[in-house]
Amino acid sequence: MHGVHGHGVHGAEGALCAEGLTRYRQAVVKGCTSKEDVPECLLRLGLLVTPPDDSGVLVPVAPDVALAGLVRPIEERLERQRGDVRALTDSFSPVHAIYTVAKREHQGWATEIHGERVIGSTLAHAVRSCRTELMTVQPGGRRLAYDLDGLDHLRGGVRHRALFQHAARSHSATLRHIGELAGAGAEVRTLGHVIDRLVVVDRTVAYVPGAAGDDGRTSALEIRQPDLVAFLAQVFDDAWERATPVAPDTSRAPEPAVADDLRRATARLLVAGHTDEAIARRLGISRRTVAGRVARLSAELGSGSRAQLGYLIAVSGMLGDGVR
User: Fold this and answer.
1) What InterPro entries does the annotation carry (predicted)?
2) Segment holding 269, helix H or strand E
3) Each residue's pLDDT tens digit, 20-56
4) What range does the domain containing 132 cover?
């Protein structure tokens, strides 16, 4: 077809010009056309060809036939590329095995990951690879830059249970994210005080925060030791059972049960001797909010000092078996 086969036809090159459309129609009606002043687009797309019995004319080719001739070499190239991908994937199988064994033998079952960008890409890959179950814990009212945002894993049928602190219910951006998760099918609950950030994928690998370096850079640990991952999953399950569900259309107004939970959590930490700043950090709220709650507790119990307030809380029955 005049050099069309085997060569890509892309963009504007694949378009028929107005003159070409007119000439092609005439050729279809008459059964042939002369070779004089033939629009290049008809030859390039293989819509006019020279018949074997008459080299002086051009005959029209059915659009499906011409299109198949153009598409076939592209499909063949794609199939060759898919074969290359399969070959590369197969060639990496022993590499993966060597890497896994070497990690276990020389670095144990925990791999340290440095930097928010690397942590983010590692978590994103782990979540995309999730097949059955994803557990996530997000402490604090605000979310970090590398928190999980994509919902593709939910569309794939993965059960995602997301645990936040109660403080997230009063933070607009986080509340919107919670609504998106719940609306997409995730189960979302909140708790007054949660463990630190945690991601558990298919109960086979877990990610926990590492220590921040002297330069302020963050780090995380990828854990694959089965017993340790199982322990972290159990910690999550226990916290999940004590948490309060979040409806997809929840508002910023705290539910009575959540407000009571936060009140007890504040009282419990106060009795344990924590400062307002430490309580705020643990509950993911502001120091001013903690100070307000402490003041209300003091007024309610008639306390004249912080030490007395701790004693009055302890003997009041406020921290009973229902403490979360």
Assistant:
1) Sig_transdc_resp-reg_C-effctor, TrmB-like, WH-like_DNA-bd_sf
2) helix 256-271
3) 899 999 999 999 998 888 999 899 999 999 998 888 8
4) 111-245
